[in-house]
Amino acid sequence: MGYPRHALTLSLGLLAFPAGAEDLFMDSPALPEVLTATRLQQAAAAVPGSISVLDRELIHASGARTLPELLRLVPGMLVVPQVGNPPQTTVNYHGSSANQARRLQVLVDGRSVYRSGLAQVDWHDIPLAIEDIERIEVFRGPNTVSYGANALMAVVNILTRAPRDSHGTRLKVTRGQRGIDDWYAGHGLGWDGGDLHLSLSGQADDGFDHDRDGNEFRDGRRLDRLNLRLTQELDPSQSLDWQLAFKEGSNQVGNHYRASLPIAALPGEQDDRSDVRARDYAGSVRWNLDLDPQHRLHAQANLQHWERLRQWRACEAQVGFSPQLGRLWRLSPSYASALLGNLEAGKLTPPPGSTEQVALAGQVIGQVLATLDPTTGNLDHACGLINEDSRETRLDLEVQDTLSLSDSLRLLSGASYRHDRAESDTYLGAPLRKDTWRLFGHLEWHIDEHWLLQGGAMYERDSALSDSLTPRLALNYLITPAHGLRAVYSEALRTPDMFENGAHWSYRVRDLRPAAFGQREALFFMSTQAPGDLDQERIRSYELGYNGHFSRLGLAMDVKLFHENIDDMISEPLKVYDFTPSNANRLRLNGIEGELDWRLGSDDRLRLGYAYIEFDASHPEDRRLTPRHSGSAGWLRNWGQGWHSSLFYYGADSLNGLRFERLDLRLARRLHIAATQLELAGMLQQRLDDEPLSMPNNHYDARRVLWFSAGLEF
Questions:
Q1: Cβ(208)–Cβ(219) below 8 Å
Q2: Matching PROSITE patterns, A to Z (predicted)?
Q3: Which residues contact 231 (CB under 8 A, 6 or more apart)?
Q4: What is each CA distance from 550 to 29, 254, 475, 614, 634, in whole angstroms?
Q5: Region 220-238 average pLDDT
Q6: Which of 7, 91, 513, 713 falls 20 to 30 Å from 200 in CA-CA distance?
């Protein structure tokens, strides 16, 4: 499989441990457990795959303001800020295309925030404050078996803090360079059998300063959020968990539209901004029932709504709204492009083509001549309102049953139904709907005290595609309950989103001034329609690994070798003038990944993560965002008398052909005054490279940024 030689040597060394090796790994029986891998509570050594846990202490010490920045701590996770329409950050595991986070499932307390309409995870718009997060579990590998399509490469499960652990009041403000202006206010209380936590928060920054040409960027963001969580015990065996989340804000976007043909637009006619207003709503309720100590049931219902509202005024040559040019484009975009190329070069002759094409081209040329200013060579223009609004709604229902059949056998099974609806006059034409039914199961069998066999499968029926079945099989050898070797085979898939498979992309421009060919409202000539025949992307993954927890040393570590084959990939960038998605692409990944978390006594903690990847991709978009070497290192220190520090390093040798290295230093002082705790902290980020950040246009005026925060708890 092309593994690095040193990685193979390490793997063979781990496999060579004898069955009686428990004496080398004397550990406490109390082990930390994780949930995300199989939906079962498991010790890390028993998990059928690799998992990273970012706990509350680590999240706080990192000083991260956003979720993507936190995920830089996960080996193999790549964070790519992009300046687009709108600006966004994509997070991908093991690279692949940066255009969208298409292959990553993201959950907040079990609720998926992956938008299946336009294949996006809007990281900065998730209605969740960092201060409300208890831990983040990242399953690093395919997991369609547990979470369905789109968990192709990894699963990020964000778990919020339980209301019973959040009593009291917490206030925090953060101010700094680059327009950083954040705030948080939370309050929790409890009563007999119930607890509640409410938080309000806001975030703002100015984004990048300029592009590679020195032009100023409009990519700042402003947002406000509300989160409410309530738990209620109905009786000793039943409880309810209610959640409500709301977010509203705006993302700045500069109007970079350029007319397709030469025009002389007057200053002020075209907006210099085309900002996006974003609103997200989410609500969920979960019913938990303990039938007996060996049998548990839960049912969950989620309802979500996303709105992205964007309208601005742009100018185009009047001939751009010609019905004849629009028909010519629908017949043959390449012929229409050739005609426009001739016109821009001053050639007023139709390119060779069919009789209909040449006839339509002749009419377009006549329209050009009728709107041409012979003194300047520019065409008469019209300015109108462009709309790119989109709305998505999701209803998700799920039932899950967990049963211990014996001391050595556990079974998890469940079913879910999901209804997705997406609408956008510009991107989709008519509203699109999709229904998904799922049946899933996982069996855990302890053959003896050392051998653990696990198997699972997900059956999925998608109303837009054929049925699918994805399996996973894992064999763990537990040297002790805290140390395990594993061999895992899994398959997973990603379903094309509604836009990829159902786009009807056209721009209806309103309020045209002056009217174009007598039209106050007209279709822009460029349009496209999805082929509608895309199939699912598929991955086959092989993994060998070791996970160990040395409780006496305070040391936890995980190492894995992996080989992944992704076929039928949809990698092409999707543009209105070049919309050609296909399943003709593939990606092969081999490598080694490791993670180490070491608590050196009560005052120091070290955390290291590293990934080495060898890859072969058929599409250049998938080759650009897969570095060979990437990783992070962190040192957390308690200096005593309330002083704390943390130092983090993040690096990747070639992210989109650009080196990335950064140091983050956080220094904090905690003061206890009666029952009140005050924390004052300063955060410094220093870039060690002299490259743009992941994309050629992402430039800051300075290589460092500084901000301060003050937090009060009582």
A1: yes
A2: TONB_DEPENDENT_REC_3
A3: 162, 163, 164, 194, 195, 196, 239, 240, 241, 242
A4: 11, 53, 22, 31, 19
A5: 95
A6: 91
Question: Which of helix, strand or coil describes residue 369?
Answer: helix
Q: How confident is the model at residue 132 (pLDDT cuts 50, 70, 90)?
A: very high
Over the range 579-613, which residues count as b (16 or more CB within 10 Å of their CB) and which as e? bebebebbbbbbbbbbbbbebeeeeebbbbbbbbb
Rounded Cα distance, 573 and 559, in Å? 34
pLDDT value at 512 more than 90: yes
Residues 6+ apart with CB under 8 A from 337: 577
Looking at the whole model, is its pTM more than 0.85?
yes
User: Whole-angstrom Cα distance, residue 344 to residue 535?
Assistant: 39
Dihedral Cα 692, 694, 695, 697, nearest 10 deg: -30
Write down the residue that tokens 């996973």 correspond to.
Answer: 472
Say what the pLDDT of residue 140 is: 96
Distance CA 459, CA 437 (A): 8
Quick: pLDDT tens for 291-338: 999 999 999 999 999 999 999 999 999 999 999 999 999 999 999 999
The residue type of 460 is E
Report d(CA 333, CA 575) in Å as an integer. 13
Is residue 400 within 8 Å of residue 316, measured between CB atoms?
no
Sheet holding 311-317, edge to edge: 311-317, 381-387, 504-513, 522-529
C-alpha pair distances (Å), 312 with each of 232, 256, 478: 47, 11, 61
Distance of CA 545 to the CA centre of its chain: 26
Helix (H) or strand (E) holding 18: none
Q: What is the DSSP letter of 217?
A: P
For tokens 């607890």, name the residue: 195
Lowest mean pLDDT segment, chosen from 480-489, 544-553, 618-627: 618-627
Alpha-carbon gap, residue 510 to 389, rounded angstroms? 14
Give yes or no for a contact between 310 and 269, defined as CB atoms under 8 angstroms apart: no
Question: What confidence tier does 258 reach under pLDDT thresholds 50, 70, 90?
Answer: confident
Residue 492, judged by CB atoms within 10 A of its CB (0-12, 13-18, 19+), counts as buried
Tokens found for residue 186: 């939370």
- Given pLDDT bands bounded at 50, 70 and 90, which one contains residue 255? confident
Cβ(658)–Cβ(692) under 8 Å?
A: yes
> CA-CA distance, 675 to 98, in Å (whole number)?
48
Cβ proximity of 50 and 143 under 8 Å: no
Q: What is the Cα–Cα distance from 142 to 492, expressed in whole angstroms?
A: 6
Which helix or strand (DSSP H or E) is residue 199 part of?
Answer: strand 194-205
Copy the structure tokens of residue 62: 């990192």
- SS3 (DSSP) at 365: helix
DSSP, residue by residue, 35-91: -TTTSS-EEGGG-SS-EEEEEHHHHHHHT-SSHHHHGGGSTTEEEEEE-SSS-EEEE
Pairing of strands 704-713, 676-687: antiparallel
Model pLDDT, residue 624: 75
Of 388, 425, 225, give the one whose Cα is nearest residue 309: 388
Domain extent listing, the chain: 28-316+386-713
- Residue 83 CA to residue 208 CA, distance in Å, equals 9
Name which of 202, 204, 50, 224 is nearest 138 in CA terms.
50
Q: Are strands 133-139 and 238-251 parallel, antiparallel or unpaired?
A: unpaired
- Strand-pair category, 154-160 with 295-309: unpaired
> What's the longest Cα–Cα distance across the chain?
92
For 28-316+386-713, the fitting CATH number among 3.30.390.10, 2.40.170.20, 3.40.50.720, 1.25.40.890 is 2.40.170.20
pLDDT of res. 81 = 78
* Strand, helix or coil for residue 665: strand
> Over the stretch 176-203, which tens digit does the pLDDT of each residue have?
999 999 999 999 999 999 999 999 999 9
